[in-house]
Amino acid sequence: MSKFYLRNQLCIPVDGYNRAMIYDLGRRDYHFISRAYYGLLNTDGFINFDQIADQSERSELIDFLLDLEIIFEVAAQHEEKRFPPVTRSIAYPNQLTHAVIHANISPAFIDVIGNSHLQNLSILAPQISDELLKLIASIKHLEIDGIYLYIENFEAENIERHLTELGRHFALFSVNFFGAATPDTQLRDNIYYNFFTESLQDYCQKTTVDKLFVNHDLFFEAYNKHAYYHGKVYIDQSGQIKNGLNNTQSFGNINSVTAVEFQQIVHSEPFMELGNINKNETLVCKDCEFRYMCTDPRVPVKGDAHWYHPTECQYNPYLSLWQHDDGYLDLQASGVTVSATGCTIDKALLDMKFNQIWSE
């Protein structure tokens, strides 16, 4: 008797150049699978496991997927209609959801942000200071779901006093210290405290494996938009209005615009262009299995047919290696060339390098 299997709609297969993944949105986890298995599972209908000729392999795969609740069995074929597919399109009622500012931000920011509802407000500061604490207190009346602090200079000798002071501000969600002796995460007074050994500058410029997150909101945003630039505004230390921390283009100055003008800027097509980029339109990213859990801060550039990045990511999807992994090679050494005209792959060189690395 044939068995009928459907895929859990919150377990979404995503393909990459060498391998694929299952994004388990419900459990905020992921699992690597082969590209052949991706082809089987990338359906909203019944999964045809009979395409796997080897019975042992077929049974092992089914058991693996059932154990992880990636698939489930239904009793009869007509039950398929009870499990409609989940739409991956999404509407965004608020075009501005995330602002990044510095602790010395002008009071004009509070005036122009007006009644905007922000999901996140990130504040960059050299250290915990009276100026920073006054800023946090001054914005508590705004509609902000969570405030994130990024503290450039970690002061171990003052940490206990700082944590006590910060614990009085209930709007804080997380505080991130940089330049710590050892990495750590603590939960205190309902605030997450993260300690990083790297500098804030390095943290803001790099995509690393610890910055990858699997969850419902991020997946659907990244599937449709650019997860870093969509809905974001950055106000630099001189008040310039930009898309993100690494951008140089300014769209105006917070000190010389009205609230209406500010809203016109952040809702304009030129400002929103980067946020509307899809990773499937971006060279290299479109071949990466991590693309829907990634908030890549690099500034994309528009090429002849695709967007691309002049600087490389920390991950090479053509070798399935991170920069810190043994055997890592950059794109050029792998046989991959990326430019405004497109992406070319020396398949023979790439295959040779891949086999050398993964056969060791």
Q: Quote the beta fraction.
A: 15-25%
Mean pLDDT across every amino acid position: 93
In terms of quaternary structure, what is this? single chain
| Uncertain parts | none
Radius of gyration: 23 Å
Secondary-structure element series: EEEEHHEEHEHEHEEEHHEEHHEEEEHEEH
Structural class: alpha/beta
Protein name: Grasp-with-spasm system SPASM domain peptide maturase
Organism: Pedobacter yulinensis
Short account of what is shown:
With 360 residues, the chain is α/β, with parallel strands linked by helices. The protein contains 11 helices and 19 strands. 24% of the residues lie in helices and 23% in strands.
Question: Can you tag this structure with a few keywords?
Answer:
single chain, 360 residues, alpha/beta, Outer Surface Protein A, domain 3, 3 domains, eight-stranded mixed β-sheet, three-stranded antiparallel β-sheet, 19 strands, 24% helix, globular
Per-chain topology:
Layout: E1 4-7, E2 11-15, E3 20-24, E4 29-33, H1 35-41, H2 55-67, E5 71-74, E6 98-102, H3 108-113, E7 118-125, H4 130-138, E8 144-151, H5 159-166, E9 172-178, E10 184-188, E11 191-196, H6 200-205, H7 216-224, E12 232-235, E13 241-242, H8 259-266, H9 269-272, E14 301-302, E15 307-308, E16 315-316, E17 321-322, H10 331-334, E18 336-339, E19 342-345, H11 347-358
